[in-house]
Amino acid sequence: MRHLELIKALPKAELHVHIEGTFEPELMFAIAQRNAIEIPYTSVEEVRQAYNFHNLQSFLDIYYAGANVLIHEQDFYDLAMAYFEKCAEDHVVHTEMFFDPQTHTDRGIAFDVVIQGLTRACRDAEQKWGITSHLIMCFLRHLSEEAAFETLEQALAYKDQIIAVGLDSSEMGHPPSKFERVFAKARDEGFLVVAHAGEEGPAEYVWEALDLLKVNRVDHGVRSEEDPQLLQRLIQEKMPLTVCPLSNLKLCVVDDMQQHNIRRLLQQGVHVTVNSDDPSYFGGYMNDNFIAIADALDLTEQELKQLAINSFEASFISDQTKQKWIQKIQNWV
Ligand code: ADE
Ligand code: ZN
Question: What is the rounded distance in angstroms from the CA atom of residue 78 to the CA atom of residue 158?
Fold first, then answer.
């Protein structure tokens, strides 16, 4: 494995991870049992065998079903703590995690239950491992604008615990323009904004995320390469793309890792970062994603360091803390 020791040792920030996508089958079984909820699998092996996706929708169907066993504050706490433990192992020192409130509120789970469980885990992770974190609330784009407005309304009481809003779920047929007014309100209320765009959807959706939603980062964005003018815009504005290599492979956005464009994008000056997306479903956490591209694309030490630096530059932490981590990476021998 190329540069394994460097990958392990580099401090990293994760900017694109869905907390519901970190749900390991073992924990899913344990929580299902204690909540007396039936799941359609008899063993962990059977669950993993079901993780054979051919596109985004085939994954989302299983991902939403898995989240159904989360009921109590403690469930959300346990879910997030299990993820933080992986962060500690991978030397991820800062994380900005997505959560999908509508996946839970639509099942009758209170918004408050979700947010209390997650924020308690964030506090404990900082105490235990020194890992800092922010929460990003995503709207499910297959649902209506009206439902997104209702969710934003609920989030206003938790403004100090949610740094940004995002947009996820089925991309095709649900362009960013559908949520232009919701995002305008979110920005007015002081939230930063991000959106999934250009994962399965066309470059046009990335333009919309920039021009209509006025995003601070684009999640995925790998299809931007199909539009040279868009690429120039991303480079000029130093717009971060939160790229998720193993996700792209598992969801057939790329046929094999050697064809992934993250190195080409980096070499052209696009501000790309490496992330795990839904690590329990896609076969790996942060370091696994780094290892996969380092091997397949023959990345140099300098490129790996640049990717780690980019992760802090693109993060929503203070400039002072950013500089602390960036200097650590730059001074690496
Ligand atoms: N929700 C969880 N993972 C996602 C992804 N990769 N794209 C869109 N929505 C998601
Ligand atoms: Zn995602």
Answer: 21
The closest-lying atom of ligand 1 relative to the alpha carbon of residue 21 is 2
**Is residue 3 a part of any domain in this protein?**
no
Catalytic site positions: 199
Q: How many helices (H) does the chain have, and how many strands (E)?
A: 17, 8
90 is in an annotated binding site: no
Q: Which residues line ligand 1 at a C-beta cut-off of 6 Å?
A: 18, 21, 56, 63, 168-169, 196, 199, 247, 277-278
Per the listing, tokens 């047929």 go with 173
Compute the distance between CA of residue 43 and CA of residue 52 in angstroms, rounded to an integer. Answer: 16
Angle CA(156)–CA(157)–CA(160) in degrees, nearest 5? 85
Per residue in 106-165, pLDDT (tens digit) is: 999 999 999 999 999 999 999 999 999 999 999 999 999 999 999 999 999 999 999 999
pLDDT at 1 exceeding the cut of 90: no
Look at residue 2 and tell me if it is in a domain: no
CA of residue 327 to ligand 2 center, whole Å: 29
Residue 2 pLDDT greater than 80, yes or no: no
Position 8 in a domain: no
Q: What is the pLDDT of residues 203-257, one digit of tens each?
A: 999 999 999 999 999 999 999 999 999 999 999 999 999 999 999 999 999 999 9
Structural domains in the chain (count): 1
SS3 of residue 215 by DSSP: coil
pTM above 0.90, yes or no: yes
Range of the domain at 125: 13-322
CATH code, domain with 175: 3.20.20.140
Residue 199 domain flag: yes
Question: How many whole angstroms from 328 Cα to the centroid of ligand 1?
Answer: 32
